[in-house]
Write a structure and sequence with these properties.
Layout (H helix, E strand, L loop, with lengths): L46 H23 L6 E2 L18 E2 H18 L12 H17 L1 H4 L3 H11 L13 H7 L7 E3 L13 E4 L9 E3 L6 E3 L4
Parallel strand pairs: 1-2
Antiparallel strand pairs: 3-4, 4-5, 5-6
Length: about 240
Amino acid sequence: MAERVCVRGCAVRGVHFAACPNFGDVDEGGCRGCVPTVAREGAMICDRCYKRLLATLDDAPDVIALIRSQADPLKAAVYDQEMVSGSASDEAPAPVRADLIDASDDMIRILRRWSGARIVGLEPGEESDAAHGHALDAVDAIVGMLDVLANDKAMILGLCADVIDMPPEEHKDAWTILRAVRRWPVEDTAFWAAQPCPEVACGLRAVKVIPPRREGGPTRYLCAKCGWEKHDDDD
């Protein structure tokens, strides 16, 4: 039986079909790889997509807490609207960018939808620690059923679109988890270990170690050059 390949269309970097113009060419100026990546065992996505899902989900609660710490939902304002007559009180608080509220609400709705919880946003005025707790509960539920979701084509494509993809051009103002993570990056706790990359052809003499953000989550090891990645709970 033929091996399943990643339904997201991932390809092996630097590996080409014989008919490809870049076959046998080490120059990556054209095709960077066209041979499909084999799917993870028991899943319909490749190992790299699966691990990107875990990593981005792990970041989500911290990002939501960071956003909420910068915003009071009761004072949100859209800045590109026309000003109306009248003056604000000298004691009025500075308005908060509406994108802070939109992003945190969209993120929690995404997480709650995929966790099976009631799909509602955060309460107005909800503190960052409470928001973090709600997000963490949802992430734990999603991670707990990720193997089931990953073996269903429609479900895993939908989850990946919400979590590890940027919004499509026609909905570029919408928020996905990845867009928010890139917009509000959390503190980097990673460090470098003086261990060579296991990929013999790579040659990089150190790997990046990323401690887990979620209790019980895996420590991640990755190569900044070739993209190799491993989690400490991998078989």
